[in-house]
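User: Can you recover a sequence for this backbone? Please restate the input before giving your answer.

Assistant: Of course. Working from this structure:
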């Protein structure tokens, strides 16, 4: 599968994280880890897998025949359909990538960078008394511009959007909590007593932030940075990818519409004859092109046309080298051909009509979304 198709196929899939201990701890140094970020998409007969360390990108795409071959290589004793094999591989990958502690202890993984630049991601999981093994042999994404564009659009931009949205949500939640505290304080001032089970201290934003920065979970995040999406961040990521897909589709339709712009009518094209250019003091397109191609010191003469049949009858000796100025001779003037005359075919007409209908459908869809949002706002105020 082409690399562009693989990247497009994985654009809407969420990110996961594989944390691998580095070799520094084996040498007596501090405990360090390396984080790899992965994307994957599985079907009943194939899968696509991508992994990056934010510097390089590796991909692998396998169809049914490849899965059968790899099953025979890694698990020759397992007689299981392809769909079941892919389900086991996907489950093992998900358990480790999203950090399911209750399952990840049974799944072991290892990442090795080969000498030829390929990356090997090895998995093994315990199923009853058998250890199921699988290896993703990923090829590097060689194009530097393509690699940078992928990391920018699929990792950095979503991360910035998610961070910005979470900051706004946190700010709004702090305001809501402050209003709730003021409401509770007003109830207490009126003599209303709350049960001890629901009594809470007044919210302190600065103290909350200090406790979070000093927590063990934040320290673990510093050691093992991850990019795993939960329900909230997953919705933000889906909205972002849908927005990017809509923008790309609109760009494609806009380019197609500009390429399929309507030509001039026959009457308008016939009015633009060479005499029109002469009367206006300008040159026709053909004459302007010939003038640019000729040397400035040579006189402008018309080159007589020579058909293929005439050239074959007269023989090679009668053919003249018209590129040489000394061999040029005036001949009968060629009949002026109108370059703007154009007859539109029925296929082009139907294609333009289809493009117009598609653009109108997109505009109507956008208008319907605005109408739905307006209706929701009205119901919120009721």
């Amino acid at each position: 599968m082409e690399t562009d198709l693989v990247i497009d196929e994985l654009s809407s899939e969420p990110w996961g994280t594989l944390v691998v201990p580095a070799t520094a701890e084996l040498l007596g140094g501090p405990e360090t880890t390396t984080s790899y970020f992965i994307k994957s998409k599985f079907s009943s007969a194939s899968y696509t897998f991508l992994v990056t360390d934010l510097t390089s990108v590796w991909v692998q795409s396998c169809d049914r025949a490849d899965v059968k071959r790899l099953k025979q290589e890694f698990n020759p004793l397992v007689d299981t359909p392809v769909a079941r094999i892919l389900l086991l591989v996907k489950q093992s990958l998900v358990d480790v990538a999203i950090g399911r502690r209750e399952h990840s202890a049974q799944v072991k993984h290892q990442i090795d960078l080969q000498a030829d630049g390929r990356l090997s991601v090895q998995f093994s999981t315990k199923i009853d008394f058998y250890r199921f093994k699988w290896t993703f042999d990923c090829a590097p994404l060689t194009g530097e511009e393509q690699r940078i564009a992928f990391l920018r659009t699929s990792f950095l931009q979503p991360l910035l959007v998610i961070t910005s949205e979470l900051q706004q949500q946190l700010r709004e939640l702090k305001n809501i909590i402050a209003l709730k505290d003021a409401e509770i304080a007003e109830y207490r001032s009126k003599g209303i007593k709350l049960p001890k089970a629901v009594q809470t201290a007044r919210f302190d934003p600065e103290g909350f932030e200090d406790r979070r920065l000093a927590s063990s979970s934040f320290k673990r995040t510093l050691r093992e940075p991850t990019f795993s999406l939960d329900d909230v961040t997953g919705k933000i990521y889906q909205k972002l990818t849908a927005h990017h897909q809509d923008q790309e589709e609109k760009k494609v339709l806009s380019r197609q519409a500009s390429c399929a712009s309507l030509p001039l009518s026959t009457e308008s094209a016939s009015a633009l004859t060479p005499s029109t250019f002469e009367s206006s003091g300008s040159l026709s397109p053909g004459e302007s092109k010939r003038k640019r191609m000729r040397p400035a010191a040579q006189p402008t003469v018309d080159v007589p046309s020579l058909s293929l049949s005439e050239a074959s009858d007269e023989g090679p000796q009668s053919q003249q080298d018209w590129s040489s100025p000394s061999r040029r001779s005036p001949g009968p003037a060629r009949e002026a051909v109108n370059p703007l005359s154009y007859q539109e075919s029925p296929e082009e007409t139907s294609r333009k009509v289809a493009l117009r209908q598609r653009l109108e459908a997109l505009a109507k869809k956008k208008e319907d979304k605005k109408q739905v949002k307006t209706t929701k706002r009205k119901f919120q105020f009721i």
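That completes the design. Strands lie at 16-21, 33-42, 47-52, 57-62, 107-113, 119-127, 130-140.
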